[in-house]
Automatic annotation (TrEMBL):
Glycosyl transferase family 3 N-terminal domain residues: 14-77
EC code(s) of this entry: 2.4.2.18
One GO process term, biological-process aspect: L-tryptophan biosynthetic process
GO cellular component: cytosol
Gene Ontology MF terms in the entry: anthranilate phosphoribosyltransferase activity
Name of the protein described by the UniProt record: Anthranilate phosphoribosyltransferase like
Keywords annotated in UniProt: Glycosyltransferase, Transferase
NCBIfam families: PRK09071.1 (NF006564)
């Protein structure tokens, strides 16, 4: 995007809009949020302004309109190549209690001839296990650009790409958490990037309520289909030890947007909340059939159920039967 197309309202306008006194402040419209993010991406905002802006939004949480506007601006700058993708999956939290069992679900979906695009970040918290390490152990191709990701997807059916390789501003902005001590709207919109406009984009959130923001923002972004839910540690992995509500959006060719939700039942009843295992060797041993892990296997199967119900419009029982078969026949 050329600088001449950027809304030239001073950035102070956006800070004032969201930060005035109680009676005068308001949230940004989608267009205002888009223009504010354009200025941020163009480097026209000081660090002091950016920190104030992010934290003012953090205090009251971003609205769906703001989230959609921010994502629009970032997508404009990304300008991805055309690539047919079935499943888009963002991984920006890292696991701190359970292993990233969803990676085995994605492996099985790729074997079922679904194309999978996984994007994420490696954080600096030593007590968390980040997805890239598991992608490497599972011998996923790791892309360093969206062009390379397209090649890997077309050749291998799946790939992982660090977000800094296609949207470096996201990693920079997420890094502000270390200094500010709080998450920001960037942690929401990173999961929404879906640069290839996949048939299904799956978003895991940590806090209840953010799934609603993702769902409502998706109606404004006109993505084909989005599933958002509270996953384990904020990752897009269905927890089998609790009842999970999946918030869905589907936008059809007539530009009509349909929102609905469905529940995945609790199927694992022996969960120990004090249990902690993030040893990648355990996950690999389970994948190879050398070790059993009842919780992990249930997480894989239920995450598969989510995708199969969404993409193939199966009933829960149909999806459970197919997911269990995929796991047992791996």
């Amino acid at each position: 995007m050329s600088e001449s197309t950027i809304d030239e309202k001073p950035f102070q306008f956006y800070i004032q809009t969201i930060g005035r006194g109680q009676k005068r402040r308001r949230s940004l419209t989608q267009a205002e949020a888009r223009d504010a993010m354009r200025l941020i991406l163009a480097g026209k905002v000081s660090e002091m302004q950016l920190g104030a802006f992010l934290m003012l939004i953090r205090v009251r949480e971003e609205t769906p309109e703001e989230a959609a506007g921010f994502v629009e601006a970032i997508r404009e700058k990304i300008a991805p190549p055309s690539c047919s993708v079935d499943i888009d999956w963002g991984s920006y939290a890292g696991k701190r209690r359970q292993l990233p069992w969803f990676m085995l679900a994605l492996n099985l979906l790729a074997r079922k001839d679904y194309t999978v695009f996984l994007h994420g970040i490696v954080g600096n918290e030593s007590h968390r296990l980040y997805t890239q390490e598991i992608a490497e152990r599972l011998e996923w191709p790791i892309a360093n650009s969206l062009e390379k990701a397209k090649q890997y997807i077309e050749h291998s059916g799946l790939c992982y790409i660090p977000v800094e390789c296609f949207a470096p501003e996201i990693k920079t902005l997420m890094g502000y958490r270390d200094e500010l001590g709080l998450r920001s709207p960037i942690h929401t919109l990173a999961r929404m990037l879906n640069p290839f406009q996949a048939r299904l984009s799956v978003h895991g959130v940590f806090h209840k309520g953010y799934d609603d923001i993702h769902q409502q923002a998706a109606t404004r972004l006109n993505d084909p289909m989005t599933a958002a839910f509270c996953g384990d540690s904020g990752e897009a992995e269905v927890r089998p030890d609790r009842k999970t509500e999946i918030k869905m959006v589907e936008n059809n060719s007539e530009s009509a947007s349909e929102m609905w939700s469905f529940f995945l039942a609790k199927i694992f009843f022996n969960s120990d909340p004090t249990e902690k295992c993030i040893d990648p060797e355990v996950l690999m041993a389970v994948w190879r059939g050398e070790q059993s892990h009842p919780y992990g296997e249930a997480a894989v199967i239920h995450t598969l159920v989510l995708v199969l119900m969404s993409l193939e419009h199966l009933t829960y029982d149909e999806a459970m039967t197919q997911a269990t078969r995929l796991w047992c026949n791996r």
